[in-house]
Amino acid sequence: MRVVVARSIDAALAALASATEASRILAGGTDLCVEFESGRTRPDLVVEVGRVAELRFVRETQAGLEIGAGSTCADLLRSAPVARGADLLALAAREVGAVQIQNRATLGGNLVTASPAADLVPALFALGARVRLASLAGRRELLVEEFVTGYRATARRPDELVESVVIPPRPAGEHRAFHKVGTRRAQSISKVVVALALGPRGAGARIAAGSVAERTLRLATLEAALARGLARERLAQAVAHAVALDTRPRDDVRSTARYRRAVLERVLVRVLGPWLEPEGNAA
Amino acid sequence: MKLEPRAVPLQDAPPKRKVKTTQVVNGIETEVEIEVEDVPAGQWPPRASLRVLNHDIPRVDGPVKVSGAARYTHDVRVPGMVWARLLLSPLPRARVAALDLEAARAVPGVVHVLVVEREETGWLGQPVAVVAAETLEAAGDGLRALAARFEPLPWVVDHAAAVREGAPAVGRGANVGRPETDGDEARARAALSASATRVRATYTVPVQHHASLETHGVVVDYRGGEDAVVYCSTQYAQGFAAEAAKELGLKAGNVRGVVEHMGGGFGSKFGLDAQGLYACRIAKELKRPVHLMLDRRAEFLMSGNRSGTSMTIEAGCDAQGSLTGLVAEAWKHGGLGRGSLSGLPYCYKAGAHFRDVRSVRMHLDASRAMRAPGHPQASFGMESILDELAYAAGLDLVEIRRRNAAHPAWVRQLDRVAREIGWDQHPHRTQPGKPDREECIGIGFGISNWGSGGSSDCEAEVRIEKDGSVVVACAAQDLGTGTRMYMAAIAAEEFGLPVAAVTARLGDSRLPTGVASGGSVTTPSVAPAVKDACTRARGAFAAHLAQVLGRSAEGFRFGPDGVRHDGMTERLAWSKACGTLPAEGLSARGKWQESLQTRGVRCTQAAQVAVDPGTGRVRVLHMVCLQEVGLALNRLAVKSQIQGGMIQALGYALGEGRQLDSALGLQLNASFEEYKIPHALEIPRMTTLIDDDDTRNGVAGVGEPPAIPGASAIANAVHNACGARVRELPITPDKVLLALGKVV
After folding, report:
1. Mutation test of the interface with chain A: which of B300, B612, B617, choosing the one with the most A Cβ atoms within 10 A?
2. Residue A194: which CATH number?
3. pTM of the predicted model, to two decimals?
4. CA distance B700 to B409
5. Which of A125, A182, B98, B154 could join A188 via S-S bond, C-beta 3.0 to 4.6 A?
């Protein structure tokens, strides 16, 4: 195993130029070091980017809020611009592990690991985030839904590094919510996690859920129903329909599929209910 | 005349008499009759006169523990030390198909490869090989280089598979053990038939792990020659040293066992264990010190656990709620071991009872003693069936307990605990609430008991130095519960000193005979011996001062204002008095005395919970515990230990439990990531009460009883809140929704 400690983005990209599918990028190490210890992962190349200062920033740009991939969960919790423009991300960061983990785990790491139970990823989905990737071959930008492609799988090529994510400016009057159900009140990997954003009269709904399929996903059926001006009385039925169509939960060590379906439904009804108009008032 | 230097001899061969006491074998308490010296019985001072004891004394070792300065076994580093790691069987039963010893030996830094199982493994996590190397990392590389291959053999790791006809045999003999029965079945069944109300249900508890924050392990400091020191995370330093001596081939007296601080044991750390054995073998072979601590996965797989149980209980009562009959059929799940389950009915009396208990063996590590072995399992079955009976008969949940409790202390405790938890204002006293709101509030109760007596072998030494300092010593270990603290406090009380003026030395096999710390015996063993040593030292000191000052020895009093004599108006400062001692100071040895300890501790708890019937999440809001403790040496430490027990029970109720994949033969949660012990945010408001109506002036062990009834109380509270009767621990949210019929 070759280890390259990169001190700059350029150095990281140069090292990644020879990367293969078996290579790994190490940022905070909160996932990868556990895999090393368990023996599940024996990469040919590890590029350490945890000390690349250029990856750790939050800046407000015309395109929206740009957050460096090396920003830790603790950074997200402490950032005033994140609290203003990407509140869901701060709420999600608070749910990641304990304080020690929050001090190490990075936004980029959570995204690239692409665990179906990731806490930050649903928040990025609901915020409509775009992912900026760099390699020696150039730069490109993907919608976060396009970036996360499957169970711990992303559209990142082995030679690419996630540099930052961009959160579009918050539309006026958008409701947002983040809700996680775990076994414990902290340091608990999600049984179900939901992040959502909803414009006035159901416009521009982005409803994201984690731990209910092999990857984080958006509940397209529900979003469509909301965009059509769903009345509060019809919410429960629409949610049940969407959960049945859009999610693919499984039984695992943390929970059961039927529990996940039932609780996802209830959480969505509870969160969305107060935002919807009763029948008659609906558009 | 000069004071006899050092030791004050004990009386020569005093007459003996027989007393009943508790002896602990691997954490299981057993009542035995022993002979003790028939000396005048020592007494603790009346409670009202106590200046130090029975007060809150902050922990002396708190600062070193929270700052990381305390040296645990894992922290020990000695010159020339090698690091050892274990290769475990990844399957419950397998043929060892390949081990590349040459490759492992060729890894730079690897100094020794020990194969401990060449043929066939018989339980998940069974050690197969040990690699020792100059660094921990090199040892890890050595393990990987072994490139071990295992061919699966048929196994059983769950009840259904183990009892099936033609199931793979677990060791020799049948997978289901012989029945252990108690009571008269015909009479019990007749009583059930005649009862006004009867209920029957099956309750299941999982295997619970000790989850000690410090894993098992040892540093064997042997460099050749005749002597060795073993640093061990153990509940019995003297026993550990003796076993290690045998393995090292050294004289028992030449091996010193040291355990300065312990990060928990809960009954799992009595013997040398496999890792201790291997460390000794490697040290003997290499003539170099060996560091061998289990990693967390090994800790989950091979260090024992609290056995699981499945029990079907049928109980009946008369119109007033008195238990007329109880029949229980139970299976213990203790892996290769027998498991443990206390008697049913547990803490309650029934007109007639019968029980039939069998163990079901599986290809998993043997269960061990764990904080009140057998009691929490029995409590869960008992308290659950009692609640179900009360609801079926329309009776108040507290009233049915008061009526059937096997000892009057519980009646008094139930009244107080019910008051503290707000039972009289609670709306659901005879029927559970409905799942009709986001936060349903419920209350549940449970009671427990434990023997808690001391051990007659325990001794202690107290030394008063010429400079006025005092050292108290006993080989027993401080598991983190405050042994060090009360040893010093007893001497401080006896000599009228501040606690800080006394140093306690413990956890060292070279010190006066201690005790195996299990079954809550440490305090009722050590405290009487320390008190006796202090009494003797005080007598010897008074005799010395009588010589020096020309006064009668009987007249001397030791207090915070110094040394006084009944016939003198002036006082002598402690340091001045000690200044008259010979250069070597004064010391005295004391022995355990029956009169200074007491037996039988009863405990009552209540829990108040909030259940969200939408998600099935349970939040414990408030727990109340009222417990007998005899004479509390340090009220702060007693309360702290009670709270620890309540928290452990909370984990048993809501999160903990070994999860296995039967088909793949894996433990799914052999880590703290997936094995859920409670965290700070789960801790409810805790009302921790020492039962001061218990006026027995003897010391009792307090650690066991508070860990027993909490899970039962929480389970009953969940049902009381919203009608979700979860008969299988842990009560995870999905089970709550299932019980409510809210998931399909």
Report:
1. B617
2. 3.30.390.50
3. 0.92
4. 16
5. A182
